[in-house]
Specification:
The chain is an all-alpha fold. The chain has seven helices and no strands. The radius of gyration is 27 Å and the shape is elongated.
């Protein structure tokens, strides 16, 4: 049984710290018991270890009680964000960039037009030039949404791979 299949059987992933204090259900206990049975069948656990851990699983109260029973087995890998999570983070980053560009355009426009109105009313409307650059920046962000989101998602994936390599070297 792979780690992905195991943890998807829980309503709440017991590896997530916020879920550890939740009460375990009979189904949660049965999932851990199945993992222990597979580990025993593969020769990863002795009979005594299997009996001890199975008893502990059946008597566990919280999801956090279940995780230590399988920590040293292959299914206990920590949850990693998938590509969907990276994409969602990248979209949120793009939305923040777009919001920042829009607020920059509005703030810059208000400031420059106020200065123009106070000092040069009726003369050449020079604030149009800096506003044009701010507007081009906003348009670039809006038009290039897909490229910006994809690039940020790739950056997040590279960062995760780098962190995983670092952990593997330390461990």
């Amino acid at each position: 049984m792979s780690g992905i299949e195991v943890w998807n059987q829980f309503d709440h992933d017991p590896r997530v710290p916020a879920n550890r204090s939740m009460r375990a259900s009979d189904r949660d206990r049965a999932v851990i018991e199945a993992v222990l049975t597979d580990a025993f069948a593969e020769g990863r656990l002795t009979r005594d270890e299997y009996d001890e851990r199975t008893d502990a699983a059946l008597s566990s109260r919280t999801l956090g009680d279940l995780v230590p029973l399988v920590e040293d087995l292959p299914v206990a890998l920590p949850p990693r964000p998938g590509t969907a999570d990276f994409h969602a983070q990248a979209v949120r980053k793009w939305e923040a960039d777009r919001r920042e560009a829009l607020l920059g355009l509005i703030g810059l426009s208000a400031l420059l037009w106020t200065i123009w109105a106070v000092t040069m009313w009726g003369e050449f409307p020079w604030p149009l030039f800096p506003m044009g650059f701010a507007l081009m920046h906003l348009a670039r962000i809006v038009v290039n949404k897909r490229d910006i989101v994809d690039e940020h998602a790739r950056r997040l994936e590279r960062k995760q791979r780098k962190e995983l390599r670092k952990r593997e070297e330390e461990g």
